[in-house]
């Protein structure tokens, strides 16, 4: 029963104490997040894993790329687990290393050494390694502006992987006009751009988050009509047009902070993943909060981490099993660590 599973998890946590660390991303379900030793956005969780020296077992309640990042940032003796191996990220899957290497070959033919790769942390360890090898860095939605600014201090132009929307929204906020942004289509292996290529400042990988693409201009119009006083706050993984029309945009941490410090009685439409929106509704009964898309938008892969999988994973750890352990090869980890270190230095 649920009660038995919950009791089991509490018991394991108690018996392992500080030997076990459970980071939980804000998009995790309540049935899982209740056991998290720390909740955070992807940047905070990466930092906490890097700083944690005492945990032997890190059970990552989030998605695969986050667990990989945790493995890269921790020592050899610390083991990282993902309670369900199917908890991937559709965005991270939109850039594979072979496509990236082929794209890089073509882009460096066109632009020589004037281009620097940046990757959103929502990418595989192999992509982070590729970026590190080519002097680039990772970014998260909390520090994308800082990192893109940094990148432009190094080189004339950037390749931003794999989320075109975060890349476009960030570069736009820093003053890069949309006319200077091209899109790389990894399927057709071509650069989508009209105009002289010397003008290009940003090359956006044609990837997106299937959850955040569900927030539309129509949703915004509907909210504006129905609730004229409502503030609209969205995650920067949303399309440019939606971010443009919203009142604010920021990472999951940014959204939580904005809602928590908002005055009583204010009303908010939020454009991000369903579990977080539901939690904010529950934890802020003094504010009127809705999802920007009335159908709510769950991240199906985040939701694969549930109580039974968490309990099963802990049971396997107690039996000293290595099921669902996430290990990044030292070959990838070395360069990926450099890409991550450049980011962690700047925040
Ligand atoms: P943040 O936690 O950085 O806001 O990212 C959201 C997300 O989509 C994680 O997969
Ligand atoms: Fe990936 Fe989007 Fe889910 Fe985040 S919300 S894990 S970017 S699919």
Automatic annotation (TrEMBL):
HAMAP family xrefs: NadA_type3
Keyword Ubl conjugation: no
GO biological process: 'de novo' NAD+ biosynthetic process from L-aspartate
InterPro entries: NadA (IPR003473), NadA_sf (IPR036094), Quinolinate_synth_A_type3 (IPR023515)
Role played: Catalyzes the condensation of iminoaspartate with dihydroxyacetone phosphate to form quinolinate.
Family: Belongs to the quinolinate synthase family. Type 3 subfamily.
EC number of this enzyme: 2.5.1.72
Catalytic activity: iminosuccinate + dihydroxyacetone phosphate = quinolinate + phosphate + 2 H2O + H(+)
GO CC terms: cytosol
Pfam families assigned to the protein according to its UniProt record, in alphabetical order: NadA
Residues the record lists as binding [4Fe-4S] cluster: 89, 209, 299
Needed co-factor(s): [4Fe-4S] cluster
Name under which the protein is recorded: Quinolinate synthase
Cited SUPFAM superfamilies: NadA-like (SSF142754)
Cofactor binding note of this UniProt entry: Binds 1 [4Fe-4S] cluster per subunit.
Any one GO molecular function term: quinolinate synthetase A activity
Organism listed in the record: Salirhabdus euzebyi
UniProt keywords, alphabetically: 4Fe-4S, Cytoplasm, Iron, Iron-sulfur, Metal-binding, Pyridine nucleotide biosynthesis, Transferase
Intracellular or extracellular location(s): Cytoplasm
The keyword S-adenosyl-L-methionine is assigned to this record: no
């Amino acid at each position: 029963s649920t009660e038995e599973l919950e009791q089991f998890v509490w018991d394991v946590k108690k018996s392992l104490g500080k030997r076990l660390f459970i980071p939980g991303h804000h998009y995790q379900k309540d049935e899982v997040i209740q056991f998290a030793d720390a909740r955070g956005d992807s940047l905070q969780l990466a930092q906490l894993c890097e700083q944690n020296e005492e945990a032997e077992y890190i059970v990552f309640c989030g998605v695969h790329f986050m667990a990989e990042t945790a493995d890269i940032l921790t020592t050899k003796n610390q083991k990282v687990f993902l309670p369900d191996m199917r908890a991937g990220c559709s965005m991270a899957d939109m850039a594979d290393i072979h496509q990236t290497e082929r794209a890089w070959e073509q882009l460096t033919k066109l632009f020589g050494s004037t281009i620097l790769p940046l990757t959103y942390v929502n990418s595989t360890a192999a992509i982070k390694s590729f970026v590190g090898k080519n002097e680039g860095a990772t970014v998260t939605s909390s520090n994308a502006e800082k990192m893109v600014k940094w990148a432009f201090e190094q080189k004339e132009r950037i390749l931003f992987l794999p989320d075109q929307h975060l890349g476009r929204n960030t570069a736009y906020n820093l003053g890069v006009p949309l006319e200077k942004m091209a899109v790389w289509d990894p399927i057709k292996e071509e650069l989508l751009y009209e105009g002289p290529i010397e003008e290009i400042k940003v090359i956006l990988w044609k990837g997106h988050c299937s959850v955040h693409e569900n927030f539309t201009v129509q949703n915004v119009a509907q909210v504006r009509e129905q609730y004229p006083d409502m503030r609209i706050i969205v995650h920067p993984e949303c399309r440019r047009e939606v971010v443009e029309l919203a009142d604010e945009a920021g990472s999951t941490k940014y959204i939580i902070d904005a809602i928590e410090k908002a005055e009583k009685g204010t009303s908010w439409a939020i454009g991000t993943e369903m579990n977080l929106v539901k939690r904010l509704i529950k934890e802020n009964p003094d504010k009127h909060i809705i999802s920007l898309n009335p159908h709510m938008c769950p991240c199906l892969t985040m939701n694969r981490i549930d109580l039974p999988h968490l309990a099963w994973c802990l049971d396997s750890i107690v039996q000293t099993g290595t099921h669902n352990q996430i290990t990044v090869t030292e070959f990838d980890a070395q360069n990926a660590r450099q890409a991550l270190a450049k980011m962690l230095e700047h925040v």
